[in-house]
Structure formats: C-alpha cells, structure tokens
Write a structure and sequence with these properties.
The structure is a single chain. The protein is of the alpha/beta class. The chain folds into four domains: 140 residues, P-loop containing nucleotide triphosphate hydrolases (Rossmann fold, 3-Layer(aba) Sandwich), CATH 3.40.50.300; 78 residues, Helicase, Ruva Protein, domain 3 (Orthogonal Bundle); 90 residues, Zinc Finger, Delta Prime, domain 3 (Up-down Bundle); 75 residues, post-AAA+ oligomerization domain-like (Orthogonal Bundle). 48% of the residues lie in helices and 7% in strands. It has a five-stranded parallel beta sheet with strand order 2-3-4-1-5, with helices on both faces. A two-stranded parallel sheet has the order 6-7. The protein is elongated and about 100 Å long. The termini are far apart. The N terminus is likely disordered.
Length: 463
C-alpha cells in the first residue's frame, strides 16, 4: 500500500512539539498542536456530534455517508473529518482544492481500489471543495456513488452554489456553526497550558481573564484565528524577557496592540449577500439604526462604497418609489458627493443615504407595476398600438386612420383629455396602483379621477 497517500488514525493525536525558544527550526502552529484526538475534546458542534446527535449516531454505528461540511473558518471542519476517520478506523486521504486536480483524484481512486481488497474504507477529505471546478467535481461522482470512496468535502461557501447538484444529491450536508465565546475561552485556556509545555527557553506565560475574553470576542467564532492571536501575543510578551523562570502576563493591552479585527466578508459569497440583504431589509422596515449598522459593517469589511451606493439607488426606486420621488435625487446626489470627496470622508454619504431611505415614506407600487407590465407583455406579446395613439406623418397614414380622434391634452382647460392609453385587448388594465403613503397619497387621489374619466370615455356613445 503506498504509505505516502495515507495517514492512519494513529497519526491524528497531537505530536510532541519541538522547543519554541530561540535557535531556529520550524515550529508547529499552536492550532495544529491542539487539534483534539477524541470527540470528548472537540469543542462546539454539539448539535452534530454531541451524544445522540444525528452525525454522531451515524459515526457510532459506522454508517457514515459522503458529506459536505459547511461552516465558517475555524469551526472545526478538518478536525471533524479526522475524528470521523479515526472513529471508523478508515484510511484518511486529504486533497486541497487549491493545488490538486483530476490527476490527484485518480491516484486516490487507484489507492482506494487497493484498500478495498483489504476491506478498508477510504475517506477522501477535500478541503475548500468549492474551489474545484465542475469537471473536477464530476470526477468524484462515480466513485462516491459506488461507495469506493467516502467523500468529506469542507467549504465556507453555500453548497447550493459551490457544489454541483449531482454531487450534492449524493452527499449529506452538515452545517457547522461558529464557536461561541465560552467555547473559544475554554480552548484558549488549554492553549496557554500548551504554550508553556512547549516553551523551551522562554519564560512561562499567564493570561489575564479580560485578555482571554477580548481574544474570544475578536475572533468571531474562528478557533484557528483565536489561537493564532494568542500565539502572537505570547511571542510579543516573552520576546524581551530576561528571566526564563518568572512568568510574564498577557494583558488586554497586549491583545489590542497585536490584533486587528477581521470581519467575515466575501465579496462574491454568501456573507456578502447576507449583509446586503440585512441592509436592504432594515431600510425597507424604516429602521435607521439597523440601516446604519449594516452599512457600517459592509464598509468596515472593505467593500467599495460605490457598490453600496448603487444598491441604495436601486432601493430608492424599488422600496421608496413615488412615495418620495426626491429619494432618487438624494441617492444620485450622495453618489456624486462621494465621488467628489472620496474615502474615508465620503463614506459618510453612504450613512446619510441609508438613514434618509430608512425614514422616508415607502411604496413598492412602482416596482410591482413594472413587474406586472413585464408579465403582461410576456403573456400577450406585441399588441398593436391603438390608431389614435399612432403618429401620422404621411397622407396614407392619415387615410388609414392613424391619429384619428386624437386630442392634444394641453389645449384642454385642465390639460387633460380622457382617451384610451392601452391596446384594445387590455384596455381596462390598471398597472400602477399608488398607496396612500407619502407623496403617493395625493397621486392616488388625482389618478383615481383620471382613471375614472378614461373608463367613462371608453363606454359606447361617450364623446
């Protein structure tokens, strides 16, 4: 059996770390050294792998299916896959979608066939499976379906968009949640002990409670990030220590000095759309506080303010519409003001527009009307223009009845002459139905009179 392809379950337990003091050498990352070897040490995901949980029952009964583990960074996807392989005594093969291709998949399949001869299950763990293209994902299908390999894919992207439908239908999707602050805090307490165990010639470290609390809050549920931040803080506080026997303390100030908050955000992925959706819906709900917060979150994550402003311009038409026709003018003005001033000062116009749209009267009547028009056109096609609405630049057209009976509205005392404005087949349709909110209240009153006059003009015998 080719040993370089497989890691047996005995290799999953944390290995002794080399001394981490001065002297060079490669230091194993703290997050890797703390990777648990038993489910009892696996923090978080109790709804999946706690006693009696669905996935845990499948593991305990040795009936694991191919699966997609979907969760944010640092939620334990790789560790969970390793624990599953260990618990089921399976050979564990890993591929990273970043540097692997179809050729690597074929090599794994060949080894899995050899494994089957010895009645050994092969678990293929594919990290960042969403980075595989369709052809690469297709390569898994026959072997997953035949049971030759048990596929465990890990992804931070929504599998509905990131994994091809045939592969998704042959797999179970299990969703992992970010670790809670208490779980991260327990992990950090373990990590302090591990740092001291492998400290080499460095002094031992102690961590203040508020420093651990700060790390747990700053990591956004990402265990790997929390451990990385703690490791950096420990390196900083021990770097200039003279006495290797006297403990040094990691305080909250050290955390603040060495850590910059990273906000989970992906410009083309689900979190991007989650935040934009939250901004849109809080504006629609006339909630300026929520609108300010979500706009601020998006900007803090590094999104281009122009993108946010373009979305807000759309909201001005879709959700405000004719209830406040000035909303579009405000939106365009804020976009122009941003272009004139630039970041970071110009970002204030994003906040101003978000608040304006949140507090102004709302109406989606225009949005609904446009949708109904599209549906009507799809249903009835190219209906002919009524003759009286057609232009008649030639004598022939006039002889054919073009523009016949048309009255110039501006010549009427009230600037309005009732006439049919739609094709004959849909002459009675009313597409735009204004609300009684904002400016649309007065529009609704006037339009009701005009529509009634048009309806009366269409009756037989009306002049």
């Amino acid at each position: 059996m080719p040993e370089d392809l497989f890691a047996t379950s005995q290799e999953f337990a944390p290995s002794p770390a080399p001394p981490s003091g001065a002297g060079g050498g490669v230091r194993q990352p703290l997050a890797d050294r703390l990777r648990p070897a038993e489910f009892e040490d696996f923090l978080g995901q109790h709804k999946l792998v706690g006693t009696g949980a669905p996935l845990r029952r499948l593991i305990d009964s040795d009936r694991i299916p191919s699966m997609i583990l979907w969760g944010p960074p640092g939620s334990g996807k790789t560790t969970l896959a390793m624990l599953i392989a260990r618990a089921t005594q399976s050979d564990f093969v890993t591929l990273s979608a970043v540097g692997s291709g179809v050729k690597d998949v074929r090599a794994v399949v060949d080894a899995a066939r050899l494994n089957r001869q010895y009645a050994r299950r092969t678990i293929l763990f594919v990290d960042e499976i969403h980075r595989f293209n369709k052809a690469q994902q297709d390569a898994f299908l026959p072997h997953v379906e035949s049971g030759l390999i048990t596929l465990i894919g890990a992804t931070t992207e929504n599998p509905s968009f990131a994994v091809i439908a045939p592969l998704l239908s042959r797999s179970r999707v299990f969703t992992l949640a970010p670790l809670g602050p208490e779980e991260v805090r327990r992990l950090l307490e373990r990590a302090v002990g591990e740092i001291n165990r492998a400290r080499g010639e460095r002094p031992p470290v102690e961590a203040d409670a508020d420093a651990l609390d700060a790390l747990a809050a700053l990591c956004d549920g990402d265990a790997r990030r929390a451990l990385g931040m703690l490791e950096i803080a420990a390196d900083v506080v021990t770097a200039d220590a003279d006495n290797t026997d006297v403990p040094v303390r990691i305080a909250r100030d050290h955390v603040r000095d060495v850590v910059q908050r990273h906000l989970l955000y992906d410009r083309a992925g689900e979190e991007h759309f989650n935040l934009i959706s939250a901004l849109h819906k809080t504006i629609r709900s006339s909630d300026p506080h929520g609108a300010l917060y979500w706009a601020g979150r998006i900007l803090a994550a590094g999104e281009d303010p122009r993108y946010v402003l373009r979305r807000l311009i759309r909201i001005a038409a879709e959700d405000v519409g004719m209830a406040d026709p000035n909303a579009v003018q405000q939106a365009i003005a804020c976009m122009q003001a941003y272009e004139s001033l630039g970041p970071p000062e110009g970002n204030l116009f994003v906040s101003q527009l978000a608040v304006y749209l949140a507090i102004t009267p709302k109406s989606n009547a225009l949005y609904v009307a446009a949708g109904e028009v599209r549906a009507e056109i799809e249903r009835t096609g190219a209906l002919p223009v009524p003759l009286h609405l057609r232009n008649a630049p030639t004598h022939l057209m006039k002889d054919l009845g073009y523009a016949e009976g048309y009255s110039y509205d501006h010549d009427a005392p009230e600037g309005f002459v009732p006439k049919q404005g739609l094709p004959d087949a849909i002459a009675d349709r009313l597409f735009y139905r204004p609300t009684t909110r904002g400016r649309e209240a007065s529009i609704a009153e006037r339009l009701a009179r005009l529509d009634e006059a048009r309806k009366a003009a269409r009756k037989p015998g009306s002049s």
